[in-house]
User: What shape does this take?
Amino acid sequence: MKVDVSTNKAEMFLSSDIVDEKIRKAAILQKKLYQDKDSNRVFGWTHVKSAAVQLDEIKVKAAEVRRKAEVFVIAGVGGSNQAARAMIEALQGEDGPRVIYLGNTLSPHYINKMMEQLKGKSVYINVIAKNFETLEPGSHFRILRNYMEKIYTKDDMSERVILTGTYGSRMEEIAKENGYTFFSFPEAIGGRYSAFSPVGLFPIAVAGLDIDKYLKGVVSAEDYCMKHTDNNPALKYAAIRNSLYEKNYNIELLTAFEPQFTYFTKWWVQLFGESEGKNLMGIFPTAAIYSEDLHSMGQYMQDGRRNLIETFIKVKNTNSSVIVNEDKKFRDGFDYLENMDFNTINKVAERATIEAHTKGGVPCIEFEVEEISEETFGAFYYIFMLACALSGLLMGVNPFDQEGVEEYKRSMFIGLGKN
Ligand code: PA5
Assistant: This one.
């Protein structure tokens, strides 16, 4: 398995009996997740095979889009775009269509800016929505159709529009009525747990990422977590953060010293925020990218209120190197860095930060991977999704619903005159 977790700098703040007891409880919950009948149809993602469906069709259509599209629009929001975006923003190469994101905002400025990118380009779109009532993707699909129908014939449109939704939904009917490609959003999987279903798989394949390698990472994490209680990163992480929560550590900051993880942290914030924040409970998830954010959040992390947990994503090998050159003449004060690789500088800063924050009273959890790759993302998604489900269950909330977000929608729909 590709992901190690080290919790000793968090366990320092806890008694080992409490942690052991939590791990035992989490292990029982994990067993139930794997074995239960799933009568509420929410654990579809725990068994990768039932989530990662339509692989051959996905590969064929993605290859076609890569050949023919100059711009590929992903129209989805929340769990319907975050996982794919996190990987694309981290790993996409220079070739293939430019990926742009719609269906994730109500800002006319942003919509106009994105629509400008389509002009004169060969456009393909993937609209992703489990519940085809979500305002942002539904309304942007309308704008996109209106734009595309002025340029493309009906046959062209049927090639260029790809819909991802649940079987039996209006999305599926629209796909059938218009000859659009339709991919499944498995019914037994909620949005934020959909990373390795077609919701995530198709867009990342269009971006040129290797979905076999990705699924290899997911499956290795699934195998490992199913078979192991000892050193199981999901169990350990869920148990530690839950033990800390009971000692009033109620904010968790996820951070990495690699900006490639920026959108990954957004995915993680959504996963934990929507899963745990309910019934007046939950650890408030937030994120930072270091070293940049050490110059904003570093002060608070070191010296602010002591209710914080900090979780680090560490990478052993970045496959990049920048050596600081010699410069004798300028006398800029940076000679101490001469001939040093930024890999070393970044690692020293990472170690120093963890050390200083632990000393300052912040429990630190460290995840470490060999490199940033499709496999790594696959393993991370599986481990964090499992940990999040277990953590929510340990806390006594339902990690699979999101009733709370309906509240603002009710008022908004009244304001918009929706029947
Ligand atoms: O995790 C979730 O369920 C949510 O964040 C949804 O993914 C988000 O609200 C988008 O929903 P839909 O795919 O139905 O448009």
Summary: The beta strands are 3-6, 71-75, 98-102, 123-128, 161-165, 181-184, 251-256, 284-289, 308-315, 364-369. The chain has two domains: 4-35+214-403, 46-209. The chain has a mean pLDDT of 96.
